[in-house]
């Protein structure tokens, strides 16, 4: 009787989990393809764009790629061979390609998400989530140069014990921001359990 009860509870848990995933992924919804105009691939962005912010003068900063060498659960070569990079694209000249932004800080491999802060004296700062192998950080850059030849200067890295799995960042000042976690734990076996249990532990 006990084993039967355990089996029933386990079956109910699996059914609940699958039903929740179906609802979250929207299999029951109809999606219509639409776009405002012609689309094209923009070189040299090879591994897609995780996020993009647009400045008031029409310059887009794009994050692309992610280094997941510290995540044993990711084995897809399309992902593992996609180093994180930052690109700039000028919407005022959409026929041109993007340009890679370089900065003197050493290797920062993971650039998934970001936001911008428009300060006084035409200063623009870019806040980028960085999933480093040893910690989660927010990298703060200053956008310099003109729209024809944009460059970025690394200002500082911000690290906090509360950054466990940063999913997004919202800039509120030159060095202040809000950040959200999409999980309480980092990418370990316990994180898999957290995901399977669908626990609301993110912050």
TrEMBL record:
PANTHER family: PARAOXONASE (PTHR11799), PARAOXONASE-RELATED (PTHR11799:SF12). It catalyses: a phenyl acetate + H2O = a phenol + acetate + H(+). It comes from the Eukaryota. Ca(2+) binds at residues 50-51, 167-168. The keyword Hydrolase applies. Belongs to the paraoxonase family. Its EC number is 3.1.1.2. Keywords: Calcium, Disulfide bond, Glycoprotein, Hydrolase, Metal-binding. It is an enzyme of class 3 (hydrolase). GO terms for molecular function: arylesterase activity; metal ion binding. SUPFAM superfamilies: Calcium-dependent phosphotriesterase. This is Paraoxonase. Its cofactor is Ca(2+). Binds 2 calcium ions per subunit.
């Amino acid at each position: 009787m006990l084993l039967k009860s355990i089996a029933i509870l386990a079956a109910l848990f699996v059914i609940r989990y699958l039903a929740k995933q179906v609802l979250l992924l929207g299999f029951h919804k109809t999606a219509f393809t639409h776009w405002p105009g012609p689309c094209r691939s923009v070189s040299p962005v090879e591994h897609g764009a995780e996020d993009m912010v647009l400045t008031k003068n029409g310059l887009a900063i794009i994050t692309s790629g992610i280094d997941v060498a510290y995540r044993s659960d990711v084995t897809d070569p399309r992902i593992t061979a996609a180093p994180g990079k930052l690109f700039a694209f000028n919407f005022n000249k959409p026929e041109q390609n993007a340009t890679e932004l370089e900065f003197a800080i050493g290797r920062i491999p993971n650039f998934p998400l970001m936001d911008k802060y428009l300060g006084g004296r035409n200063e623009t700062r870019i806040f980028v989530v960085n999933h480093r192998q040893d910690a989660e950080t927010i990298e703060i850059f200053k956008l310099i140069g003109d729209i024809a030849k944009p460059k970025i200067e690394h200002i500082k890295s911000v690290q906090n014990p509360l950054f466990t799995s940063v999913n997004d960042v919202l800039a509120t000042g030159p060095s202040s921001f809000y950040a959200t976690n999409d999980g309480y734990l980092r990418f370990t076996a316990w994180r898999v359990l957290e995901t399977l249990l669908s626990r609301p532990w993110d912050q």
